[in-house]
Amino acid sequence: MSAVKASRPDRAVQIGSVFEQSAEDLSPELARERAEEEKLARVKTAIEVQRLEEITKKNARRYRYAAWFLWIAGSFMIIVVTMIACSGCETNGFKISDTVLVALLGTALSTVAAPTILLARYLFTNTNGRVSDRTGAE
After folding, report:
1. What is the pLDDT of residues 6-64, one digit of tens each?
2. Fewest CB atoms within 10 Å of the CB: 19, 69, 115, 125?
3. What angle do CA 103, 104, 107 make, to 5 degrees?
4. What is d(CA 67, CA 63) in angstroms, rounded to the nearest whole number?
5. Cβ distance 73 to 116 under 8 Å?
6. pLDDT 10s digits, 96-119
C-alpha cells in the first residue's frame, strides 16, 4: 500500500483497502471477512433486484386495472350522455321525465366517482399502506 501526505505534514493517509489486496496477502480472518462481505453484497443485490421486479409487476397490474376502469366508465358515460341527448331532442318519441333525468345523472356520477376514488386509493398506495399525496410526503 502506498502512503500519501495529508494536508498536515506530520500525518500520512493510507490509501488502499482490503478488497485491493490479493488473496495470498490476506490473513485467514481477513479473507473470511472479505468473503462474508462479498456474500452480503450479492444477497443485497439479489434482494434489490427482486424488489424492483415486484414493483414492475405491480405497476403493470395497476395500468391494466386503470385501462379496464376507463373503458367501463367511459362506456357508461357515453350511454348516459346518449340517453340525455335523445331525451332532449325527443327523437322517435323518446322522452324521459325530469325526475328520471336527475336520478340518472346522480347515479351516473356516483357510479363513476366512487369507484374512481376507491381504485385510486387501493392502487396507488405507498409501501406503508398509506395513500401518497402530490408532494410525496406521508
Report:
1. 444 444 444 444 455 555 566 888 888 888 999 999 999 999 999 999 988 988 888 88
2. 19
3. 80
4. 6
5. yes
6. 888 998 998 888 888 888 888 877
Beta bridge partners of 2: 15
User: At 125, is the secondary structure helix, strand, or coil?
Assistant: strand
**Which residues lie closer than 8 Å to 2 by C-beta, 6 or more apart?**
15, 16
The 3-state DSSP class for residue 9 equals coil
Size of the chain, expressed as the number of residues it contains:
138
- Indicate whether this model's pTM tops 0.70: no
Q: Which helix (H) or strand (E) holds 4?
A: strand 2-5
Instruction: Quote the Cα angle for 86-92-95, to 5°.
Output: 50
Residues 6+ apart with CB under 8 A from 56: none
Strands 2-5 vs 12-15: parallel, antiparallel or unpaired: antiparallel
Separation of alpha carbons 72 and 130, rounded Å: 27
Grid coordinates given for 82 = 346518449
Residue with grid cell 327523437, as numbered in its chain? 91
Specify which residues 131 forms β-bridges with.
125
